[in-house]
Amino acid sequence: MTASLGWGEESRKTPRSEPLPADPTGQRLCEIFGHYPWNFIRADLPDDATTKAAWTTVNTYPLRPRVLWNQWQDANQLIGVRFTHDTRYALLDLDAGGDYCTAEGVAQIRAALETIGITRTLLIRSSWSGGLHLYLPFAELVNTFNLAVTLKECLQTQGFRLQAGQLEIFPNVKAYGVQTFIEYMGHRLPLQPGSGSCLLDDALNPIGSSLARFFWLWDGAAGHQDMDTLLHAMKIGRDNHRKRPKRRSHPVESWRHDLDLEITEGWTDYGQTNHLLKTIACYGHVFEGIQGQALTDYTLRIALNCPGYEQYCRHQHDIERKVTAWTRAVEGYYWPLGTTSSRDTSHPQNTLVPFNQQQAEDAQHRICIAYTELEQAGELPEQITARARAIAQAAKVSQQTLYKHLSLWHPAHQEGVIAQLASLLAPEEASSGAMPESSEPFEIKELHPSERYMKGEALCAGDLGSDTNSSPPERGVRGDEPVFPQEAEPAAYDPALHEQIQNQIRSLGWSVEVIRQFIADRFEGKRWPELTEDERFLLLYHLRVIDR
Q: Which residues pair with 134 in a beta bridge?
């Protein structure tokens, strides 16, 4: 996210207190359309009204409010602006000659927008060419990217063709650039003198070009939007945008796209810092191959420029320390795409698990499941013989195998740290419905998970995209069923991560009180059941640091 725009990191931010024009109408124009002054677009007004304007991007200086008002009044030029991470409006561009540039087409689009709470719009002719701009004003700021994906999904699922020359949405569903920040598309300002832009009634008849009247109609429309319905639709639209058609997308590319979306949206509320720092570090390490101090610098730079950081991140005072912890944790858990997992040289390097060992681990796993299910159902016998028979039958193991692993089920062997750990973790495990974990510690305690639980297999660089039938889908496609709105499915539980935390705690030999205090000290007084999966990931890193 290093913006090569000449203005560096500052180019992502809007000036906070720029002097406004003296004219009240000019002030209103700047308040609505001057929210993001960087990389504005301009063009000389064509002599021939039927000729398209030659738009260019100005990235050498920002469009200050008074300059914006002055250039809007200049009848010899056209001015346009871009969106930033939040907005008070959107607009739909209906090109002249397209299927929707008619009174009937506008009515159909308005009816579609009402399904997501947008009940009032402003219609203007955009220029002498006869194209239309349909403005969607709001009484409050909304997330730009969420609005973009929601508008796209709403119109697509109702049969509208979204393409240049027909119907385009501003803000657009833009890509996320890692090395270079990608802007939203720019659009021209309304009702500029000499541009041919004017207000229209429902029958597409001109009703004047007064900017003051435009803002009077704007306020009336903004005050009548159903914001509760719109905000709910935006949440669903964002969640659905993350869903990918599984049969068409490569799993690694799908994972990369999901990380990309998370970073693009940035902070949208409090309590998201750990999740986003992990996501950024993971993207940089796995897909960019960045390591060490360079990964820390990369993660910090991206985080500081993410949308919502200044508003919602409560760790700005110690952000560098948190970034350092997360990048080290990520490097221990993931590895760059196209390489194999790195292993500690102090441990054996052979990653091939002997068949007998694999069978033994599988049997232990089934014993744990059987023990927990019988205990939760109240069907675990107190007598040892009856208990052994019941567990062996449920786990489908022999009595001989069962007695090799007494610590997993025999009450006389469930003591000390194992019993304490079970009392700490078992209640949360039962409520989450997650699969119970083995009580036997690993002989080799590695931070890397087994390959079957890895977030993406190690692939050769040439493997990606080798299947011609599994090309990555277009951005914004959430699935094959054209249904909106539709709730997205919840995230899956990660058993490999939980198992490693259990093993690490056992190796330290701590009491329950020590474990609880350790968690509370590092996660703002939280208890184990209150930790998110990202916080448990970071907990594993802290435990390994103590163990070393």
A: 92, 123
% of the chain surpassing 70 pLDDT? 75
Find tokens 């350790």 and name the residue: 518
Q: What is the rounded CA–CA span in Å between residue 340 and residue 279?
A: 20
In this predicted structure, the answer to whether residue 118 has a pLDDT above a threshold of 70 is yes
Q: In this model, does residue 119 exceed pLDDT 70?
A: yes
What does the alpha-carbon distance between residue 476 and residue 491 come to, in Å, rounded to a whole number? 19
* Residue 199 and residue 208 in contact, taking contact as beta carbons nearer than 8 Å: yes
Q: What was the pLDDT predicted at 437?
A: 41
Task: State how far the Cα of 429 lies from the Cα of 419, in Å rounded to an integer.
Answer: 15
Find where tokens 């599988």 sit.
362
Instruction: Give the Cα separation of 394 and 147 in Å (integer).
Output: 51
- pTM for this prediction: 0.47
- Residue 262 CA to residue 375 CA, distance in Å, equals 40
Distance CA 401, CA 365 (A): 12
Rounded mean pLDDT, 11-21: 62
Q: What is the pLDDT of residues 288-308, one digit of tens each?
A: 889 999 999 999 999 998 998
d(CA 362, CA 350): 20
DSSP class of residue 206? B
Cβ neighbours for 447, distance < 8 A, ≥ 6 positions apart: 332, 333, 500, 540, 541, 544
Question: Sign of the CA dihedral 385, 388, 394, 398?
Answer: negative
Select from 311, 301, 299 the least CA-distant residue to 270: 311
Distance CA 422, CA 321 (A): 32
Question: Taking 50 as the threshold, does the pLDDT of residue 351 lie above it?
Answer: no
Contact 95, 131 (CB under 8 A): yes
Q: Extract the tokens encoding 444.
A: 């080799």
Cα–chain center distance at 187: 26
Question: How much of the chain, in percent, has pLDDT values that exceed 90?
Answer: 39
Strand ranges, E, within 126-180: 132-143, 167-170
Greatest mean pLDDT among 309-323, 351-365, 436-450 lies in 309-323
Question: Could you give phi then psi for residue 324, rounded to 5 degrees?
Answer: -60, -45
CA distance linking residue 539 with residue 522, whole number of Å = 8
pLDDT band at 350 (very low <50, low <70, confident <90, very high): very low
Structure-block tokens of residue 472: 């990555």
d(CA 291, CA 314) in angstroms, rounded, equals 26
* DSSP character string of 273-284: HHHHHHHHHHHH
Question: CA dist 215 to 141, 154, 192, Å?
Answer: 17, 26, 14
SS3 88: strand
